[in-house]
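Review this fold:
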Amino acid sequence: MLLQDSSSLITGASRGLGRALAESLARAGSRVVMVARERGPLDDAVATIRAAGGTAHGIAADVGDKQAIHRITGAAAALVGPIDLLVNNASTLGPTPLRLLLDTECEDLERVLAVNLVGPFRLSKVVAGSMALRGAGVIVNISSDAAVEAYPTWGAYGVSKAALAQLSNIWNAELDGSGVRVLSIDPGEMNTRMHVDAIPDTDPSTLADPRDVAARILDAIAGVTS
């Protein structure tokens, strides 16, 4: 899959890594559809890409809402054509300050799983079939080192990312030979609002710039499609 003249759908795209990925993809010639819950930051991100000459559209929606999935994918396909690249980037930590599992409400765990795991599953389920019929496509699931390391107070988030990583493995096994590739990528610690919410006292200078991480992810995509 060449990024030039491709169609990309990115969730959690109004800020941080999602926005950096959308901007990088647009510069590479992809028509991007950006999904985020908050309309204001989303419109700003779309306007920035368009001002630079890229093609971008915004859909205000919550990937944790089952009823939003077909609206997202249907609108995206209508705007830019069949999706060649899906980036499941939207994530939630759950309530902050982060808390021990013993202090985590069941409803908060359900919400984290809905956004970080079930939403990506639903979106992937909708687009993967079309990708397989065309014999090409890439799905990127943004993971975390919390998927493999047991960090106290990161329980809900860590469980969701561990499950997402295994979901990626199973998708790959089941889609083997179809031309569809599923990548699970740990972007590392980045200078984002989510990181500030999780660890407010971190020195920003020690964190990666999301734009640099986005460049590495595009290299990974190119590596599996070349």
Summary: The longest helix spans residues 106-134. DSSP finds seven helices and six strands in the chain.
